[in-house]
Amino acid sequence: MSSSPPTVLLTGASGVLGTALLAELSACSLWVTALIHRCPCPAADDQLCGDLTAPGLGLDRETYRALARKVDAVVHCAAVTDFTSGPEAAHATNEAGTRAVAEFAADAGATLYHVSTAFVARNELTRSRLGRDSGSAGARPEDYLDSKRAAEDVVRSSGLPAVIVRPSIVVGDSHTGKISAFQGLHSILQMLMRGMMPLVPLPRGSLIDFVPQDVVARTVAALIFEGRREGEVWVTSGPEALRADQVLEAVFDACAELGLSPAEPRFVGPDMVDRLIRPVFLADGLPERTLRRFDDMLAMTALFADAPVFPTSLGQVQDGPPPLTRAQLEEALRQTLRHLARTKRLGTVSGRAPLGPIPEEVPA
Comparing C-alpha atoms, which of 265, 253, 256 is closest to residue 334? Predict the structure, then answer.
């Protein structure tokens, strides 16, 4: 790689990680071209409208060639992350889209930094893989995880200089909690704050591994500057991950600050849910929509129930972020809860005044 800052092609620039990465890469004086599809990205140095599922990234031949001549590194963040999208949509973007990006990186002679997910290591923990009934759930994490594993296979078999980056759950900024779009964990946190979860279908000691978006962004930027060209990088909290009961404690601390007093839910293991609670107490006693929401939550929490600790590469990337401490994770969670409360207008601050809007508020 030359001594001058590399030119980066960024896919998924308007997404959660893409937004954080764009800010970090721009702050590092890298020239960033964003490949956009629907959402414009004015913060990028340049943007091109394309399509990962179309030949040549949906670009005309001359534009494609000109882009390939100048790009040194490709950061591939674009992905379908909706667990309800179905296998066809997930594979069309996550697998076939990655293949198209890899082909471009080969034409450009660029290093590919492929953003995957740490949860590819837990594919066998989905309810379908465990032989558990999915009930009325629309969420199927296995479709997403299958597509991400297939995308990793595409990268590994491409022969390219490539780094696979595996973040765990991505939450908002470490210091502000801000995030461009709320994720599945935010939905569960909001339900807890609103008192809409009478039980949590998890053993209380299950680790909830999350990382702030700025930590992921700093890691990827450091990999580019280091010139890393191979390997797998785990961006996780690893052994410092908070337990489910510690997350719940943080939620109730935030609720006390906000003047909220939801009923405290009970932790219940998946076996008891399947054998007793769902068939006896829930199946005929909940509205269909509420039951579907509960089954979706079952599908998501299956990935955490007594799961092994993720490895972590934090502290192992030159000039990258150090391993996260328990105190940093607790603070990041507090900021996430405050941002969620402000955006959703939940409660008050210290019982004095309603939480008002914050600058650049994400849609409710």
Answer: 253
Q: What is the pLDDT of residues 47-90, one digit of tens each?
A: 999 999 899 999 999 999 999 999 999 999 999 888 888 889 88
> Averaged over 346-351, what is the pLDDT?
65
Beta strands in the chain (DSSP E): 7-11, 31-36, 46-49, 73-76, 111-115, 162-167, 169-171, 199-200, 207-208, 210-212, 232-235, 242-243, 266-267, 348-349, 353-354
Least-confidence region, from 139-153, 184-198, 262-276:
262-276
Separation of alpha carbons 337 and 172, rounded Å? 10
Asked whether 82 and 187 are in contact (CB, 8 A), the reply is no
For 135, other C-beta atoms within 10 Å of its C-beta total 18
Measured between alpha carbons, how far is 296 from 134 in angstroms, rounded to an integer?
8
Instruction: Find the angle CA(338)-CA(85)-CA(121) to the nearest 5 degrees.
Output: 75
How many angstroms separate the Cα of 275 from the Cα of each of 183, 244, 278, 293? 29, 22, 7, 19
Paired residues of 167 in beta bridges: 235
Model confidence band, residue 111 (pLDDT cutoffs 50, 70, 90): very high
The per-residue pLDDT for 244 is: 97
**Residue 185: pLDDT over 80:** yes
Alpha helices for 234-276 (secondary structure H)? 244-258, 270-272
State the chain's mean pLDDT as an integer: 89
Contact 202, 305 (CB under 8 A): yes
Query: Nearest CA to 69 among 9, 109, 112, 113?
Result: 109
Phi-psi category of residue 306: left, alpha or beta, with phi > 0 → left and psi -120 to 50 → alpha: left
- Mean pLDDT on 313-331: 97
Q: How far apart are CA 71 and CA 35, in angstroms?
A: 12
- Asked whether residue 129 carries a pLDDT value surpassing 70, the answer given is yes
* Closest C-alpha to 170, from 219, 124, 122: 219
- Tell me the C-alpha distance between 238 and 227, whole Å: 25
Neighbours of 62 (CB within 10 A): 8
Nearest to 115 by CA among 194, 248, 19, 244: 19
